[in-house]
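Appendix B. One record, verbatim.
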Amino acid sequence: MIVTEIKPVTKQKFQIELDGQPAFVLYKGELSRYHIQKDEELEEAIYREIVDEVLTKRAKLRAMHLLQKMDRTKAELRRKLEQGGYPSEAVETALAYVESFHYIDDTRYAARYIEFQKAKKGKARLKMELQQKGISGEIINRALEEAEETMDSRDAIRRMLESKRKSDKPLEEKEKQRLYGFFMRKGFPSSDILAVFREKGEKE
């Protein structure tokens, strides 16, 4: 492997390219320790030591630090580590490490997310947001099914409608259209929105 580029990331950190491809990020002192210089060969044994002994350990610590700040999905944590310049094998080892202690658990994350958000969002919106967080459709569907017994979208619409309106007067057409659009964007089914409007004595 040939060191084809050494790019500064900060004053102390540098992105190393091997054979024209981004490989990893090291601190300034580590460049000297491992005698890394542009256009010089990096021996396989040195490469393995850097990845196995330095970067994998650093990726594990970084993953733990990120999870201390907030709960994340596996995909979100992978993306953050990749943005930090860690090589893929160090990233995957770090993910396996925190997953083995259940510090990340997409099933738990989906269940908690639905529990905290179900009072103000419909199933469609919840599903879309969890998909954007990188959670698999199978896990999302299972979590939604388990939450189904306690999820009542019409109750959620009623509560939100009451909190958004100061008056019990019938909705004017313009306000009704605005609220209908609001609830649709929240992922509530059209049939449930209109049903609540009817309950309140509103016209479709």
